[in-house]
Amino acid sequence: MGTLLEVKEKIITFIEAHRKWVERCLRFVLALVSMTAILSELGYSRVLDLPWLNLLLAAGCAFFPVTATAVVDLVLIIVQIYGFSKLLAFSVMLLFLIVYLLYYRFAPKAILVSMLTMLCACFRIPLFVPVLCALFVTGLPLAGVPVGLFLFYTVDAIGTIENTQTVQESMNAQDLIAYTYNMIAGSREMIVIIACSLIALIVVSFLRSLAVPHAFSYAVIAGAVSEAVFLLLLNMFLNAGIQLVPALVSIAAGTFAGEMAVLFQYNIDYTKSEHLRIEDSEYYYYVTAVPKQRLARKELRITHINARKIKSGAPGAVQEHTSEGSPSDRN
């Protein structure tokens, strides 16, 4: 535990010292990975499938908020679909506009949540996200998980149609839109994954808010177990055809990541809890104070040397005293 706390303190110190560049690097990686995922899902237009162009766009997105990355990704999606069907591209653009006006406009933080959800779904680990998001996000932005899943399965259905040569040749634009709608509405896999995500979000959000010891750890475990149980039951009853091994592995990975997040972000020492009573003219306040675990500060011995007194041989040339401070205070 002491080693983990020391690593945590070093990571936090490094991030605080280089916060701007750390955020820019993370935005660069998010933009690059998302654009690569889009081009792999919708590879119809080869004009944008240029590595140097992706690197250039990702580098530009690194200096702007995450919303800029979302806009660039949306443009890439529309351009890719436009090369396949103009009417379908217009329909998808209208869908994204409606989602923005009805949801993202009121919950801007949900844009990042939806982007991460879509990326995990693209790598076939959609159930990795819900437990983690419920630990750090509260309120309306939590709906970014099911919204992101719905948008992913919409884009994935279009990518599947693009790869089907017989469908492309035998349908006009209107029939193609109807066929895409039927694919999305009839996707049992999407229904199961969204339902399991909602269950995990509700369980984790409820348990983490309870005033009980180790509430965050219990929330992670309970959310993962409920997610796995509902996945098995719904997949069996709906015959969704979901590959259970990758899905369960993604849940296990999300559970491990959630426990590590609890350790780094909510590392609480329940053995030192204090129950306090505060009184004013109208009320009594009963408060439970639970400290976070910290590294014990080490004693530092500081020696002050007076060069002039050393030359003259005067007493008090060297003075020593001890003070408390962390190892990082030596710098």
How would you describe this protein?
By secondary structure, the protein is mostly helical. It has helices at 2-17, 19-41, 51-61, 66-82, 86-104, 110-122, 129-136, 144-162, 165-170, 173-185, 188-208, 215-238, 244-265, 307-312, and strands at residues 274-279, 284-289, 298-305, 318-325. Strands 1-2 form a two-stranded antiparallel ribbon. It has a two-stranded antiparallel ribbon with strand order 3-4.
Short description:
Helices cover about 65% and strands about 10% of the residues. With about 325 residues, it is mainly alpha-helical. Strand 1 (about 275-280) and strand 2 (about 285-290) form a beta hairpin.
State the helix count. 14
Q: Pairing-aware structural class of the strands and helices?
A: mainly alpha
SSE pattern = HHHHHHHHHHHHHEEEHE
Quaternary status: single chain
| Count of all domains | 2
Average of per-residue pLDDT values: 81
Summarize the SSE layout with pairings.
Blueprint: H1 2-17, H2 19-41, H3 51-61, H4 66-82, H5 86-104, H6 110-122, H7 129-136, H8 144-162, H9 165-170, H10 173-185, H11 188-208, H12 215-238, H13 244-265, E1 274-279, E2 284-289, E3 298-305, H14 307-312, E4 318-325
Antiparallel strand pairs: 1-2, 3-4
Using brief descriptors, characterize the structure shown.
globular; two-stranded antiparallel ribbon; mainly alpha; 66% helix; 2 domains; 8% strand
